[in-house]
Design a protein that fits this description.
Number of helices: 12
Strand content: 15-25%
Number of strands: 10
Structural class: alpha/beta
Largest sheet: 7 strands, parallel
Distance between the termini: 40 Å
Radius of gyration: 19 Å
Length: 292
Amino acid sequence: MILVVGATGLVGSDVCRRLAKRGQQVRALVRTTSDKNKVEALRSAGIELCLGDLKQPESLATACRGINAIVSTASSTLSRAEGDSIESVDDAGQLNLVAAAKAAKVHRFVFVSFRKPQGISVPLAEAKMRIENAIAGMNFTIIEASFFMEVWLSPALGFDYPNAAARVYGPGTSPISWISSGDVAEMCALALENPAADRRTLAFGGPEALTPLEVIARFEKIGGKPFKVEHVPEEFLCAQFAEATDSMQKSFAALMLGYLNGDAMEMKPIQQEFGIKLKSVDAYAREVLGAR
């Protein structure tokens, strides 16, 4: 039995579906406040539901009972739930989960983390590092994902492709290995199957590193419309980072600076080793634009 934590989130819900399709027994940790449609979708996929919360250690002991492996994708970054924060979820909450896993003698732990911006103090990165250190004594896999297409190349963060407009953080000239959330979910499933992922930290990005301006050019070509581009100056981002008053604001400001500096990586070795086909930015653009 595999426990998925973050099961109604962007990556976690996909992990549940992929594991269930592989014939795995899956238990999903859900909250009383979880989206009812997402919970029902999990139930319909044959996934066992377990009520619990990372902020409630006693519920995690129940969730971990009879579990062989855990996949944790949970994060407060996209959550709107009351009481969720980097401190309560990404830090203390995840540490609660690790403690429950160890007490239940769970031997396998797959943890979705992210690529930390270099030279910048990031509260979210510090929280993730504490979890990575906590699972170091287990049979772990840490997936350090680059910038998600579905988040950073979406209207939510200013990449307004339906209206052919894009906000670019900085000059937009540093390449990034944009990754699809679906590919991160698939890598979680593969990590549980393939011993090559045991006790490893995997830097994980998309198949091609493109600058934000190159991404816009791809969308313009595929959608057939020129984009209106707005640049957010680096000095503004630095001031936003310096003036941030809480850990979430600080972390997002740091991530925008990380975007500005780029995050390119060579993914062919991982693709060959694990046999994973990664979604390209072009494929994502055709999908969201409804283009062939």
